[in-house]
Write the structure tokens for this entry.
Amino acid sequence: MDEILYFQVEEQDRDSRIDRYLSEQMDGCSRSFLQKLLKDGKICIMGKPVKASYKVQPGDQIAAVVPEPEEPEILPEDIPLDILYEDGDVLIVNKPKGMVVHPSAGHYSHTLVNAVMFHCQGQLSGINGVLRPGIVHRIDMDTTGALVVCKNDASHQRLAEQLAVHAITRRYRAVVHGVIKEDTGTVTGAIGRHPTDRKKMALNEKNGKPAVTHYRVLERFAQYTYIECELETGRTHQIRVHMASIGHPLVGDAVYGPKKCPFPKLQGQTLHAMVLGFHHPRTGEYLEVTAPLPEYFEKLLTQLGGR
């Protein structure tokens, strides 16, 4: 069933293009999706359809008809997995660079979910729906490392409870710009959607959620620092946003750091989920795994003089 959303334009949004204005109001809707709605006459002001180029004015009353999304069929795919641990309840994999964790717009195949569906032969928790079977937490497409998948709802529920109370160990390795002087430190600051760029996260005390990242220096180079980060919370892009906020963005992170990477062969941020630990959902015993540094990371450290 179609959903109708209503908006009234305020003074601060005067003369914004309607597609840009709505992309900021409707979280999760891309401008291309909104432009299609506009082209189809699904977005009206005072009952009349408008074009994407229309510039909104204070007092405009906008009605947007959003069709019910079609749920795509997600199919198992025989994609090799680097398995760090597996039993009847959980599967811990070492996710490679460039792989999306779960299907989303533009990524309905070749994801980690497609791979674990094939590997687990349908034995995955269903708590997060058909697009994210078994997925309790996620890491970014260009972040590598350890990620746990649950094979049944009971395990999923127990691990989700541990996540909620920050009882899961998550330690990452990263290389950042600049030389960090102190040996250890903590970054605190609520993280939420960026106020103007909907694809980015930012420190957002007003609308964000509390976030805490602890870091310690492993090695210093002439212009860079190799660090370990431990998450106390798990917000989207947390380490990337927090380290950038203190002037030390991750090497290769064009979203929160320099647009031009000093190491052209890198693909995205230099971030690796190295250690993952939790109490096993069935036995209660503490289980911890380590994902070895990937080749690209080792090569960068060698290039910097750390190996």
